[in-house]
Amino acid sequence: xxxxxxxxxxxxxxxxxxxxxxxxxxxxxxxxxxxxxxxxxxxxxxxxxxxxxxxxxxxxxxxxxxxxxxxxxxxxxxxxxxxxxxxxxxxxxxxxxxxxxxxxxxxxxxxxxxxxxxxxxxxxxxxxxxxxxxxxxxxxxxxxxxxxxxxxxxxxxxxxxxxxxxxxxxxxxxxxxxxxxxxxxx
Length: 186
Hints:
The protein is mainly α. It has one domain: de novo design (two linked rop proteins).
């Protein structure tokens, strides 16, 4: 009788452990989805901000029309954003916004304009929020990947057919310093 109770207790403990690990993996997977959605929210905010930026600056930046044309074209490409194209489009938009910032820095009369100044602050805030969302995403992906790769949860992750997810990384070109002189020659 004592042996039967020991077996039942052991089976119950294994079942509770299995359920706890499974729920933990599901929670980690949902955290990744939530973090990815946060990036989407910030990209949408940037997407909505660009038309205002373009319209406000057209009157002041006739000589930098190519930057505005590039921003407009990228904005049109980004609607609707497909998951597969999201990283590439995000990189292009980030580069275009960086080019615009450099152009504004080069022309003090633009920086002095109140509308431009407000929009530049909004862009900086949005870029910081996107950066924070990316860090949050990478942290969630790391927790998720650790969860599915470590024993004993790796056994349950295999049963659930969970696979490791990639971190959000930037291209090597974006790691380099911006050459302002080269940008103005383009």
